[in-house]
Amino acid sequence: QVHLVESGGGLVQAGGSLRLSCAASGRTFDTSVMGWFRRTPGKGREFVAGIPWSGGTASYTDSVKGRFTIFRDNALNTVYLQMNSLNSEDTTAYYCYTDVLGVRCWGQGTQVTISS
Fold it and tell me: Exposed, middle or buried: residue 110 (CB in 10 Å: 0-12, 13-18, 19+)?
């Protein structure tokens, strides 16, 4: 089992940037992927970005391509989401996730609010 702790959310003006962090602890040897979902009314949680832990390319939902970048630091067991050109539609709670031995684990979420 892996414990995920998120940070980096907050309030930022439209057009600004934030960087979210998600640090994993516990059993991390069997981690296959880490990434981010976000809460969307009427859709529950929708996929934002994900990255394989041991290699491979990242994937993104279309609405964030060119604005968001996901990257990892394997030594720190941490995944990041760099969010640029933020707009009001990005205002929601963001949730880190990881897949461990076929089981999906979730962080508690961090709130991102964009002011205009």
Answer: buried
Cα 95 to Cα 55, 89, 113: the distances in Å are 22, 16, 14
CA-based R_g, the chain, Å:
14
CA distance 75 to 72: 9
User: In this structure, what is the dihedral angle of CA atoms 71, 110, 46, 28, given to the nearest 10 degrees?
Assistant: 50
Query: Shortest CA distance to 7 belongs to which of 77, 113, 114, 109?
Result: 109
Distance, in Å, from the CA atom of 6 to the CA atom of 24, rounded to the nearest integer, reads 9
> For the segment 7-31, what is each residue's pLDDT rounded down to a tens digit?
999 999 999 999 999 999 987 778 8
CB within 8 Å of 49: residues ≥ 6 apart: 35, 36, 58, 59, 60, 61, 64, 68, 70, 81
- DSSP-assigned letter for residue 17: -
pLDDT tens digits for 73-104?
989 999 999 999 999 999 999 999 999 888 99
